[in-house]
């Protein structure tokens, strides 16, 4: 597999478009040339959370938000969604360019476009600035990590589903290599340094809380990348290499890293038998359903991520 683009050229399904409207007015200079879509439940009160949802390759923002369950959860828990969408003129496979320094650095490219969209959405929906989150799948997951690194003070938390560590690649060839095989020899400090290089800060008092997800049968992105992501953010939080707790689940292995008496700062879900897909559960049909790269596996990632972030209705 040469790249994320190769994945989507092999199978690039058509998906139905949901009734979500794109932004009618300019939201900024948009250096990354992305498309902005947003959604909020009717009569949304001020001071509610805002969640940025980033699709994977070959997906459209509206359909992914619907199929994964974020649209339904926004209605149930009353928060706004921002759904940036890649354009074919930027990437033929509709992949966010997560490995390109010019698109992930603070103040530039696609990362800056999403930051501009976020400012616009927060003003429009009068969102709580202390409850802004980002979640992504696949290339969108890698871009979610890049945003957490570029703008750590903006986000209270993030979720990286079938993604890769920040700074693991800077070229298409490097991206393809790390998708196929994670750099398991990278030390925790090296991984943390890759984030600090983007953040341009040697130390911070706090970092976003991060939920990490992988299927143990993923043949597109090496599941070992999830271990590296957990190590990267655990090191930034100053946590031990070993998890604080392992929590039993019939379909998954969940590990958490936390300071004594504090909420977990990092969690890692490894889903048994799951390939390259965003996890949904038939037990929660009201939030999530099967779709392109959205997979029924008995675990609702949307519900678990929202609980980890502390989102409530």
How confident overall, as mean pLDDT?
A: 91
Count of strand segments:
11
pLDDT under 50 segments (min length 5)? Answer: 1-19
Radius of gyration: 18 Å
Sequence of secondary-structure elements: HEEHHEHHEHEHHEHEEEEEH
Question: By helix and strand content, what is the structural category?
Answer: alpha/beta
Strand arrangement within the widest β-sheet reads: 1-3-2-4-5-6-9-8-7
- The top-level CATH class is Alpha Beta
Instruction: Give the end-to-end Cα distance, rounded to a whole number of Å.
Output: 42 Å
Major beta sheet, specifics?
9 strands, mixed
Helical content band: 25-40%
Q: Helical stretch count?
A: 10
Envelope shape? globular
Secondary-structure arrangement, i.e. CATH architecture: 3-Layer(aba) Sandwich
Number of domains: 1
The third-level CATH topology is: Rossmann fold
What is the CATH homologous superfamily assignment? Alpha/Beta hydrolase fold, catalytic domain
β-sheet strand percentage: 15-25%
Tell me what the structure shows.
By secondary structure, this protein is of the alpha/beta class. The chain has one domain: Rossmann fold (3-Layer(aba) Sandwich), CATH 3.40.50. The protein is built from 10 helices and 11 strands. A 9-stranded mixed β-sheet has the order 1-3-2-4-5-6-9-8-7, with helices on both faces. A hairpin with an 8-residue loop joins strand 8 and strand 9. Helix 8 crosses helix 9.
């Amino acid at each position: 597999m040469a790249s994320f683009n190769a994945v989507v050229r092999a199978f690039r399904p058509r998906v139905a478009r949901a009734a979500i409207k794109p932004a009618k007015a300019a939201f900024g200079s948009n250096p990354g040339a992305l498309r902005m879509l947003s959604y909020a439940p009717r009569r949304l009160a001020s001071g509610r959370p805002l969640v940025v949802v980033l699709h994977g390759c070959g997906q459209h923002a509206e359909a992914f938000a619907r199929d994964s369950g974020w649209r339904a959860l926004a209605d149930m828990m009353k928060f706004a969604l921002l759904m940036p969408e890649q354009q074919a003129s930027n990437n033929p496979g509709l992949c966010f360019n997560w490995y390109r320094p010019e698109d992930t650095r603070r103040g530039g490219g696609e990362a800056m476009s999403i930051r501009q969209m976020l400012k616009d959405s927060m003003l429009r929906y009068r969102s709580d600035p202390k409850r802004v989150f980002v979640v992504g799948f696949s290339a969108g997951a890698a871009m979610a990590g890049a945003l957490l690194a570029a703008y750590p003070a903006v986000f209270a938390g993030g979720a990286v589903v079938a993604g890769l560590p920040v700074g693991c690649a800077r070229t298409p060839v490097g991206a393809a290599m790390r998708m196929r095989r994670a750099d398991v020899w990278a030390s925790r400090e090296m991984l943390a340094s890759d984030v600090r290089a983007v953040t341009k800060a040697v130390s911070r008092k706090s970092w976003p809380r991060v939920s990490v997800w992988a299927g143990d049968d993923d043949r597109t992105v090496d599941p070992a990348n999830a271990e590296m992501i957990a190590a990267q953010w655990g090191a930034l939080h100053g946590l031990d290499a070993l998890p604080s707790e392992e929590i039993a689940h019939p379909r998954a292995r969940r590990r958490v890293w936390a300071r004594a008496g504090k909420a977990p700062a990092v969690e890692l879900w490894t889903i048994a038998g799951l390939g390259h897909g965003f996890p949904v559960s038939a037990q929660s049909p009201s939030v999530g359903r099967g779709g392109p790269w959205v997979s029924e596996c008995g675990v609702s990632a949307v519900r678990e991520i929202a609980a980890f972030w502390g989102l409530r209705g």
